[in-house]
From TrEMBL:
This is Amino acid carrier protein. InterPro entries: Na/Ala_symport (IPR001463). PANTHER family: AGSS FAMILY TRANSPORTER, SODIUM-ALANINE, TRANSCRIPTIONAL REGULATOR, LRP FAMILY. The chain crosses the membrane at residues 12-36, 57-84, 90-107, 143-164, 184-203, 215-236, 242-269, 304-330, 366-385, 405-424, 430-448. It is found in: Cell membrane. Belongs to the alanine or glycine:cation symporter (AGCS) (TC 2.A.25) family. The keyword Transmembrane helix applies. Pfam families: Na_Ala_symp. Keywords: Cell membrane, Membrane, Symport, Transmembrane, Transmembrane helix, Transport. Its main location: membrane.
Length: 476
């Protein structure tokens, strides 16, 4: 089964998917006038007070929830597994995909906010499924079959991906980092604690999730970044070598770490782009689901704020992690040999643990607490994504069963099904990305025109149209 899944994963993340993903990132970068240059302004906007826009949660709450879902396993263990499978060059492609992916994050969020709706209770709903339905609806309200197919396929693949990526993989990472750092703690006990902690929050809805993420994300990201900087200072003598090795392996078939890792360009590209998408979600279509619930006056306002998430998760956290791991493996060949003997999800966690263990006394606790906080917040964020997709397909009655399954899968992830589920998650991520990428490419011309008005002609304080009430459909 593992071999079959690995084959499927290699196929869906083959050259065609890499070309589609990177091509979309680059195309939308130019289509939006290199929107990345607005990052300083977007960062300032992300911490300002809300300007009275319509929505359920604050703009920062939406960003924090999206960051909670991205700065986590993908930013730590994901970087480690990309390094082990694709060589140091994969880190370069992760970072580059994140840089260009900022434009994609902007465009997909713009579309989600523009086409969001209100349900019968007044709550905001949005995401690629609603973009497909509303953007291409006919004048009589009917939706073409191909648009319905795009909406349903996105929601269906998203549910699969959230259960794997958001629940099992994160729980496996928590269990792996705790048991590798504190062997006396059994995985079953970790699983029970995860179930209790997750259930206590996700049944409270988006406001409950956002409240937790608003205070948890800045603290955990700051503490982790500080730990990375300390390790990089300790490895300063080989830090330059680490940078050179990462760049060389991105463009050449160079063996690394004494020949233990053979880095080919295609493998580096494949795992770098796959883990890059897993890390920042640009093109995946998940973060816009929560962005659609934000209080914002117009789509461009929230899209600018949302795009900072890709910068923080991949441009900063993943880059720091990659430099820490590569410099540690260069400085300590014994660590490299031990983790490369049996590369896996658990090995990725062990590599991160070994790197942070370089910091006397505080290193291991910082990593354990940071990794647990990252993964826990990711579980919370992805639960909301799946919640909205289930509601779209099955209505409110499907939410509670989904939440029960979501929590149960977290337990099984904690006790040892992480590697298989990680592969399934990779496949699900690719399949849900396809309908999302197609719809934003179809709408990119309109979004580019409106971006010129709102962003480049300085009309960000201008109010856009009100979200429409929910229309008839399978979702409610």
């Amino acid at each position: 089964m593992t071999d079959i899944l690995t084959t499927i994963d290699s196929f869906v993340w083959g050259p065609a998917m890499i070309a589609l993903l990177l091509g979309t990132h680059i195309y939308l970068t130019f289509r939006t006038g290199f929107i990345q240059r607005k990052l300083p302004q977007a960062i300032r906007m992300s911490v300002k007070r809300d300007g009275g826009g319509k929505g359920d949660i604050s703009s920062f709450g939406a960003l924090a929830t999206a960051l909670a879902a991205t700065i986590g396993t993908g930013s730590i263990v994901g970087v480690a597994t990309a390094l082990l499978a694709g060589g140091p060059g994969a880190i370069f492609w992760m970072w580059l995909a994140g840089l260009f992916g900022i434009a994609t994050k902007y465009v997909e969020t713009y579309a989600a906010v523009k086409y969001r709706v209100r349900d019968k209770s007044g709550a905001m709903l949005g995401g690629a499924m609603f973009v497909w339905k509303r953007a291409f609806a006919r004048k009589d309200g009917s939706v073409p079959w191909w648009a319905t197919l795009g909406a349903v396929s996105f929601a269906g693949f998203a549910i699969i991906a959230t259960i794997g990526t958001g629940s099992a993989v994160q729980a496996a990472a928590i269990s792996g980092i705790i048991t590798s750092s504190i062997p006396a703690v059994p995985a079953v006990a970790v699983g029970v604690v995860i179930v209790a902690a997750v259930a206590a929050v996700i049944f409270g809805g988006v406001n409950s999730i956002a409240r937790v993420c608003e205070w948890l994300v800045p603290i955990m990201a700051g503490a982790y970044a500080l730990g990375c900087l300390v390790i990089m200072g300790m490895n300063f003598s080989v830090l330059g070598d680490a940078v050179v090795l990462i760049v060389e392996c991105a463009f050449t078939a160079k063996a690394a770490f004494g020949g233990a890792v053979g880095s080919g360009i295609i493998m580096a590209l494949q795992f770098g782009c796959a883990r890059g998408l897993f890390s920042n979600e640009s093109g995946l279509g998940t973060a816009p689901i929560v962005a659609a619930a934000a209080k914002t006056k117009n789509p461009a306002d929230q899209a600018l704020i949302a795009m900072t998430g890709a910068f923080w998760s991949t441009g900063v956290i993943c880059l720091l992690t990659g430099l820490v791991l590569v410099s540690t493996m260069i400085a300590h060949p014994d660590i490299a040999q031990s983790v490369l003997a049996n590369p896996s999800l658990a090995t990725g966690a062990a590599l991160a643990s070994a790197a942070f263990a370089e910091i006397p006394v505080f290193g291991t606790p910082v990593l354990v607490l940071g990794m647990c906080s990252f993964a826990y917040s990711t579980i919370l964020g992805w639960s909301y994504y799946g919640n909205r997709c289930v509601a779209y397909l099955f209505g409110p009655k499907g939410i509670k069963p989904y939440q029960v399954v979501y929590v149960a899968v977290a337990f099984f992830g904690a006790i040892g099904v992480g590697d298989v589920v990680w592969t399934i998650s990779d496949i699900g991520n690719a399949l849900m990305a396809i309908p999302n990428i197609i719809v934003i490419l179809l709408l990119s011309g309109m979004i580019a025109r409106e971006t010129r008005h709102f962003v480049y002609e300085d009309h960000l304080d201008e109010a856009a149209d009100e979200p429409v009430p929910m229309t008839k459909g399978p979702q409610f």
